[in-house]
Amino acid sequence: MSTRRKRLTIAVAAAALIVGVACSSGSNDDGDSGSDRTVRYEITGAGQATNVTYSSGAIGSQSQETSVTLPWEKEVKVPEDKSNVPTVVAQRGAGTGDITCRITVDGKEAAKATSSGEYAVVTCASELEL
């Protein structure tokens, strides 16, 4: 077998292994039915946030809103996948003061943070398991 063919065989085998691991890692091994969780994102403070970016953690789930009047909140349903990490990031506009983010999962506080100052940035992230 030529060196080129050996490399191709190894590359195909490695790709198959990676795909197999990726497909099996999404399984729910604790017997749950995979029900949805309720995630609430909250941003509080005075004035406006120049932008708020939030994600359930699932691939392709990121959304952004701009020129947001505070307080702001968004509630979404997220599949109960242990790899999902809900995240929210907000940037305060001009002026002084605090900006606070908060994430709740099924009504329980999962993350909270505060930042201060002009154009301050605040970030919250939490796993779904509480």
Which shape, going by the Cα principal axes? elongated
Q: Which stretches are poorly predicted, pLDDT < 50 over at least 5 residues? A: 4-33
User: Separation of termini?
Assistant: 54 Å
| Count of DSSP-assigned helices | 1
Strand content: over 45%
* Tally of strands: 8
SSE ordering: HEEEEEEEE
The SS-based structural class is alpha+beta
The CATH topology of one domain: Immunoglobulin-like
Query: What is the CATH class designation of one domain?
Result: Mainly Beta
- Strand order in the sheet with the most strands: 4-1-6-7
Main beta sheet strand tally, sense and closure:
4 strands, antiparallel
Give an overview of the whole structure:
- With 130 residues, the protein is α+β, with helices and mostly antiparallel strands.
- The chain has a domain at 36-125: Sandwich (Immunoglobulin-like).
- The chain is built from one helix and eight strands; from the N terminus they run αββββββββ.
- A four-stranded antiparallel β-sheet has the order 4-1-6-7, with no helix packed on it. Strands 3-2-5-8 form a four-stranded antiparallel β-sheet, with no helix packed on it.
- β6 and β7 form a beta hairpin.
- The N and C termini lie far apart (54 Å).
- The model is unreliable at 4-33 (pLDDT under 50).
